[in-house]
Amino acid sequence: MIDKNSPIPVYYQLKEDIKKKIANGVWKVGQCIDSERELSESYGVSRMTIRQALGELVQEGILIREKGKGTFVCEPKVKQKDMMSFSNIISKLGGNLNTEVLGFEIIDTPEDMQEIFPFEKLYRIDRMRIVDGENIANEIVYIPCDYCGYIDEDLLKGSLFEILEGFGYTIDYSQSSIKAVVMDDYYKKLFKVDKNVPLLNIYSKTITKNGKILFVEESIYRSDKFLLEVDISTREGKFR
Fold it and tell me: Where is the HTH gntR-type domain (predicted)?
């Protein structure tokens, strides 16, 4: 299983083999994998190498360590890295996505959004995104009525990106802020869970190719089911 003469690092070979075993059902979601000692003996490598491989799998969200209990296989998460609609992400992962429209109304533009949207009326769209039967994300979107053609609840069960692209907009990027949210009775009811689960609040402005803020979205995600990867870099000369 491990070729110590290969130019590929041993820990990486080990990591890939553990991932293959998980994919093949040797260790199932929620199951405790072999201990470091057992893995060291079965693979014939040092415990330090085992620890490095397991550490990277924990960082990747494939495994989770529970103190005093062992290392367990995580449930696969919805993973978002690039600018892509939630619908497209789930489609690429092969998941089954349903969208429940919890609210769809025309409102007066809130005072704190009047600088962003100098319009009298906004659509307020409240949707629950359900993946493989579990409530994963609650999205509340604000978009000027003037930006849209005809929208109804049936259309909103699909991709909002596709709806807006149909109106001639080309989405370029989004600006987001992320913070943790404490689970309470309201969120337990919203996500239909009876236990505390970690939540993320993501507030974002989605911007078109010509620099127009197209819509504002405030979403709550179950972070035990959703992973957002953010790449941060600096341009030369920006920081001194």
Answer: 8-76
| Residue of 178, 192, 171 lying closest to 223 (CA atoms) | 178
Please give the structure tokens belonging to residue 131.
């993946």
Instruction: Annotate 60-78 with b (16+ C-beta within 10 A) or e (fewer).
Output: ebbbeeeeeeebbbbeebb
* Domain 10-73 belongs in CATH node 3.90.1170.20: no
Domain boundaries, the chain: 10-73, 78-228
Q: Based on the number of CB atoms within 10 Å of its own CB, is 228 exposed (0-12), middle (13-18) or buried (19 or more)? A: middle
Whether the Cβ atoms of residue 38 and residue 27 lie closer than 8 Å to each other:
no
Distances, alpha carbon 34 to alpha carbons 14, 45, 65, 69, in Å:
13, 14, 12, 11
Q: Which of 128, 135, 132, 137 is nearest to 194 (CA)?
A: 135
- Dihedral of CA 183/185/186/187: which sign? positive
pLDDT tens column, 216-227 = 999 998 877 765
Is the pTM higher than 0.85? The answer reads: no
Residues 92-150 have pLDDT tens digits of 656 678 899 999 999 999 999 998 999 999 999 999 999 888 898 899 999 999 998 88
